[in-house]
Design goal:
The chain is an alpha/beta fold and 555 residues long. It is 48% helix and 20% strand. The longest helix has 51 residues. The radius of gyration is 42 Å and the shape is rod-shaped. The relative contact order is 0.05. The structure holds adenosine-5'-diphosphate. The site of adenosine-5'-diphosphate has 21 residues, from helix 14 and helix 16.
């Protein structure tokens, strides 16, 4: 009977001065289930010992001519100071100078040998397990201090993915976060050991098929060492990540599952085990807090940026009131004073002055409205009211009243589709462009509004006049606030330089584009390229899922 048979199998190196006797001892230990390397004395002995990386060394006092303890000193230097040494003491050996962890005397009793070696092997196996735990704890400790919010979400997700994978000695790591709108977990870039494309392609819906396979809320973590054939895993996810094995734990915040932490692909000889799960769960606890902190941090940052923007808009608003409202106010006051103080003023002059007061008052009202609208556009407070809009009637409603020297022609082919837009805002844009076309054509002339389809998803609206035109070097600025053409002819015509800026913001708010082509002295064409469905185009822009409108608008 072999005692000590319940010990785990280990690796024993035998360094015996007699190879035959060494083989005899090896047979005993092999029978007890151990792996044994018998190393012969000579020049390559130390190298062979190191390569064998044993759990226990069993040897004679002298190994060839050399004391065994010298070889062991070098082996322990390379393999670790804990490597146990057992001496097989021959009958002729005295025990006065023995330095060893265990001594066994010839004739060796097989049972006793197995028992004693078994004790060492068990101790070593426990030590390796302990060392592994220590390594993991060191890894976890690194995880806890190294999550940093300063670098932004990507840096955080990359850190979590890498540290999880490294701590669990896996080749791949990925953070997935729950998107409440899409109701799915989404891979966050950058993963670890994955391309950005792989990471972004991972989608794990929380309903439907995946839920039937494995519900993380109810079933908790998942270990799979045969990912490709595991019925609990979503095959698409396994395929996208090329997973052989996987360990997935939910990221929880109270009762909420806010995401998943996935590590995958370990060496086939070291499958994921239950104890690894505990480690990943510990990381997940910390990662969940870090992810939530990151979210809050981003929210605060965004709120702060919005506040700064409000502040800037408010300062600009105050500056406009202080500066641009003064001119008309001074004019109104001056003309009112003239009318009041001169009772002999001829009737036509009186009429003219009162008309000026009326015009200036209109300008002031428009300035106030435009300024308010700009602040709403810039702070995102303006919400578009999407509905179906027929372009023909919209254009007719946009033509300014009281035209005498100008003719307006609407060229809208039958069959042009209705668009989805904010009718009031689009009417405001067209009224502005038509008013400008009339205003900056002081000699009169024709103004044409032309509508054309551009593909199936866009319409082009052009407002063409035969007026003053715009010098080429000034075109670029005109869509900015307060910018006007700086020529005498233009400056004689009253204006604020806010209209085109507002038009551009509204058109862009519809997912479209506004631009002008002009020839000084011959006229200008203002063009609007609009998506047929502005609601869909702007939604797509927000989620970033297609961006067709943006690219078509640039074409
Ligand atoms: P406003 O007309 O109140 O000055 P806009 O922002 O509507 O402000 O226009 C900015 C400037 O662009 C105008 O001041 C004018 O110089 C020039 N502009 C706009 N429309 C035309 C046009 N149809 N023809 C020539 N110039 C134009």
């Amino acid at each position: 009977m072999i005692l000590g048979g319940s010990a785990p199998p280990g690796h024993v190196a035998i360094l015996h001065s007699s190879p035959d006797r060494g083989e005899a001892l090896a047979r005993v230990l092999r029978q007890a289930g151990h792996q044994v390397s018998v190393i012969r004395p000579g020049a390559g002995a130390l190298a062979t010992l190191l390569a064998a990386n044993p759990d226990v060394v069993l040897g004679t006092l002298f190994f060839g001519d050399q004391p065994l303890k010298d070889t062991m000193t070098m082996a322990r230097g390379a393999l670790g100071p804990e490597l146990p040494m057992m001496i097989v003491l021959g009958r002729e050996d005295t025990d006065t100078k023995i330095v060893a962890d265990e001594v066994i005397r010839e004739p060796v009793d097989p049972g006793e040998l197995s028992l004693r070696v078994g004790v060492f092997v068990t101790r070593q196996v426990e030590r390796w397990a302990l060392q592994k735990k220590i390594d993991q704890l060191v890894g976890l400790n690194r995880t806890s201090w190294s999550f940093s919010l300063a670098g932004g979400p990507e840096v955080l997700y990359g850190q979590v993915a890498r540290l999880c994978a490294e701590t669990l000695r896996a080749d791949k790591g990925l953070v997935l976060l729950y998107d409440p709108e899409r109701r799915e977990m989404e891979g966050q870039v950058p993963g670890f050991g994955l391309t950005r494309e792989q990471a972004t392609r991972v989608r794990y819906p929380v309903d439907g098929e995946p839920r039937d396979r494995w519900n993380f809320r109810i079933n908790g973590p998942l270990i799979s060492n045969q990912a490709a054939s595991d019925p609990h895993l979503l095959p698409e996810m396994v395929a996208v990540l090329g997973l052989r094995s996987a360990l997935v734990v939910p990221l929880t915040l109270g009762p909420q599952v806010i995401g998943l932490l996935l590590v995958g692909d370990r060496a086939p000889s070291a499958p994921f085990r239950d104890e690894d799960l505990g480690v990943l769960q510990t990381v997940a606890g910390q990662a969940a807090v870090a992810v939530e902190n990151q979210r809050l941090h981003e929210q605060i940052k965004a709120a702060n940026e919005r506040l700064q923007e409000y502040d800037r808009v408010k300062s600009e608003f105050v500056a406009i009131i202080a500066h641009d409202f003064r001119g008309p106010l001074m004019a109104i006051r001056g003309f009112a004073e003239l009318v009041l103080e001169d009772s002999d003023l001829p009737l036509d002059s009186r009429q003219e002055f009162l008309q000026t007061i009326m015009d200036q008052t209109d300008d002031l009202a428009r300035l106030a409205n435009d300024t308010l609208l700009i602040s709403r556009l810039e702070t995102g407070a303006l919400e578009y009211q999407w509905r179906d809009v027929e372009l023909g009637p919209l254009i007719l409603d946009s033509v300014p009243l009281g035209l005498s020297r100008h003719s307006v022609v609407a060229d809208v082919p039958a069959g042009v589709p209705a668009i989805v837009a904010d009718a009031d805002r689009m009417q405001q844009v067209l009224t502005n462009l038509l008013t400008n076309a009339v205003k900056y054509s002081p000699e009169g002339g024709a103004v044409t509004v032309r509508v054309r389809e551009r593909g199936t998803e866009h319409v082009l609206i052009e407002v063409v006049d035969q007026g003053l035109g715009i010098p080429a070097d000034q075109v670029g600025r005109l869509f900015q606030k307060f910018e006007r053409v700086r020529t005498d002819e233009h400056m004689r015509i009253s204006g604020t330089g806010l209209g085109l800026y507002i038009c551009r913001r509204i058109v862009e708010g519809h997912g479209g584009r506004l631009w002008v082509e002009s020839e000084p002295g011959r006229g200008s064409t203002f063009s609007i390229l609009l998506p047929v469905d502005a609601r869909a185009a702007t939604q797509a822009g927000k989620t970033g899922s297609d961006g067709k409108a943006a690219s078509a608008a640039k074409a």
